[in-house]
Known about the structure:
It is found in: Cytoplasm, Cytoskeleton, Cilium axoneme. The protein is 65% helix and 1% strand. The chain is an all-alpha fold and 645 residues long.
Amino acid sequence: MPKEVDEDPQVTGKNRYKYFEWPFLPFYKQMPLNVILATQKQDAYNYVSVPKKQPKIDLVRTQGTQTDYRDSETQTDPYTPEYVVCQDTIPEILTLATLTWGRGLPAGLAEVEMIERAREKRAWEATLPPLSNGALFNKRRKMMNDMERKEWAFREHEIEKLQELQLEVLKQLLKKREDDQNEVNINRLNAQWSKLQEEKEDKLSKIRHTHVSAIRKMMMKGRNVEGKFERRNIINEYNDYASQVYGPLSRLGRFPDSNSERFVVKNRFLNTYEGLLELEASLPDFVTQPRIRAPKPKVITTKNKFLKRSARMDLELAEVHQALLDKKRRGPEPKKKLFFLQKKVIPSPRLSTPALEMCSSEEEEIEMAVVYLQKLLRGRVIQNMMFEGKEKRLELINELRTSHWLQEDGRLVKKMEKQVTLALQRQRNLHEEKMAMIENHLGGLEGRVLTEMFDFLSKELIRLQEERRIHAFAMLAERQRRIREAEESGRRQVEQRRQREEDEIFKEVIKIHQSTVTSYLEDIILNTEESTAEEQAREEIQKMAKEINDLAYEIEDRRTRLQSEEIVAELVYSFLIPEVQKTFVKEKVRNLQRKHILAAHQIIHQSAEKVINQTEETPQPRQRPVTEIDKMFARLKAKKDEKSD
């Protein structure tokens, strides 16, 4: 349970309404009719009066309060009514009887958690097995050990939380103390700096004053270095307005304002009535009798009979002024036809003036009797209220009466009562001293037992903390070992995968080299076969051409014109027409195959783009350096393509 802290009741603060209320007095007025409230003071520097918005006046205003209770009758804690517990029932709310106002009430989050833990513990106690046999006893003991271990863990958590809170509070206090100390140091430094600055200014002012006086003395000495006696030059002094004649120095003993009365003008023409009359008679006539001449008409035209600019402006202003006056004198304009419906405000009818009905003398007597009866009832009510107040404040009256002088009998009775009271007080003091001694012995025994128990618990708590810390270190070491094993296995797998990739690359490179050598040898063999066949074909063609040439010369010598034409026609029919038919058939086949070629090209390009993208995303393998065999193979492939074209 938290420590009980008595809060400030704030009787004169925000909780004032709990201790005071208005007195219930009939015909009580808040303020007499002859009371006038003081007006608000205005600022002496507010020379210009500014209209202010009138403040809103409340209908009800509190002028004062008066208590109806004494301090001993004041209730500060909430009231707890009496209760009766039925037989064979244990209400749950009775488990909260230890909570009081200021110590757990009103309930907060900690109290709610405590209540929930108490409920869980009661539910757990209900589930404990009975002590009927050994197996149930062992099970019960195991459950109780588990619960005790949980409670120790919870208490450890609570202790850690309290330690953290205390640490935070300690940090805040240290920070506050440091800030206060820094502020005090800064204030001390500022005060010291200000003091030193003031001393510095004083010293500087003294030094300046000494410097000025020294310079002045040196200048005075410099004017008469030889030390000759000089006469006073009155003319130069009166010509120099900075001399001692016009501005004497007070440090030389001259005070110009000491005889200022002699500079006051004293003239009989201004101080006496006869002098004023004589002064008025000596003045000329135009001073006392002014002459007024009629003003000449203002010229508004120039020599060329044109209006001046100022005259034109005056005429325009007069026209505008006249237009404004005409508009002002003009009557109200007729109302325009309304395009929309407008609400017409109907003024409320004036109430009729009440008239006083004249009643007869009998009714007046009855009314006076009723008024008198009301006065009697009101007086009786006030008497009853005074009697109730006297009964309620009887203790206060008795207390006040004890302070006054009592009669002889009353004093004797009071003396006897005082002796009896003192005897009872002595007995009570003896009893309290005896009980205090017993409580001190019991407290010492309890403190010794509690000290040993807390010592044992603290040692057990330290042992448990160390045990848990060691277990946590072991768990961390095991976790670190597993993490390192996982990292090592991952590196081993990556290394094996890289080794397999390098082996495959080496196999592919060797296979490519073998295929390159084979294709190179095949190309060499094919080229040699082609060159040999070409040479043999050229020799045979030359032989056949020679034979054909000889035969042609013989036939040319023997043939006629008709045979020549027949030969030409046969050549045209056997060479030109078949060539044209061949080119036409090739073009037709090419047009038929073009759409298939385009479709194949699209498929090839799409697959090639996918492969390129994949190769760009994946790391490129190392390329094999170009050798002389590769260059030779490329040249042979180019020659082969040229021959095929």
